[in-house]
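Hi P.,

Sorry for the delay on this. The queue was packed all week, but I finally got your sequence through. Input first:
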Amino acid sequence: MKVLLRIRGDVDQFPGGDYIQLLETKAALEKLGVHCTVAPGLEKITGEFDVVHLFNTTRIHETWLQFRAAKKLNQRVVLSPIWHSLEDMRHFYSHLYRLPVFPIVSYLAAKEFFYARRSGLSVHPTATLRFASMQRDLIEKCDAILPNSDTELEMLTRESKVRPRASFISPLGLKPRTARTSSDRRDLICAGRIEPRKNQLNVIRAFKKLHRDGRKLRLYGRCNESHAKYVSQVLKECVEGWVEYGGNIPHEDLLANCESSRVAILMSFFETFGLAALEGLSTGATLCLSDTPYNRGIYGERAVYSDPYCVDSIAKGLAAAIDLPLTDHESFLKTYTWENAARTTLQAYQHVVSH
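Then the structure:
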């Protein structure tokens, strides 16, 4: 089977979870004998493919144009929606901009101009004028979709008011790794881009409320240049020997740091799957997560949950996570492999080809 994988054209400049998902899925699919070609952006489709696989509905501009190009060639199209809850985003931006009512769809639509200009693309006015309807078109007209969780499928269906033709739940995965569970793990780790959505400022302030008992909070991730003021605030809160910013380090080094940490923190105001939390759990750390439907739907009782808007709630969550016993969660983690993700993805491909 020959598959074309398509994603936004600025992934080299601005890599994110969507690109990690694409690359890891590609590698696992190729082990199953699928021939995969990656074509970011809007280059013309050349060659014959059994399926075109698209990624991301939050940034609709390129994804919709990729969909239209594929359908002009009568290609079967599968979509990984990576659907961020409109409800969670509305709450976050209302808080960020101090507005009691926030027009989230209009805001996301306007950002299409920003993303297009930032990536050097021609501005596509339809992406702003028809943002929500283009999302619905994709979800309704793609031959199948691949949400990462049951919660994502439920949220997508409810918020878009569209039911997809076919859906296959394909959780994200982990590379094989042996977790350490030694009792000398004391520090806390928080990995993610330094930006308002990831909420490092509240995490730092919550940690400073704790009786530290010699523990450190270590932050890792790329600084988002679009939020220079927030980055500056976070770095000012860092105190040597107490709260440390370790920069944007290689993924293997990040996992090694997780292995020496007791608590992994993901306190984002909104996420879809939260791969950083899964990776933390896989290294034997306990979890303190933001209390969102996505996190609860995936991690259930395996984490401590806090209100990401409340520093006191986060502080209580961190204290509770520190007191949790370390465990390997082996049976739970067996589900979350890239091999399993690839098998489900291949089932979706086979379904759309045969229908």
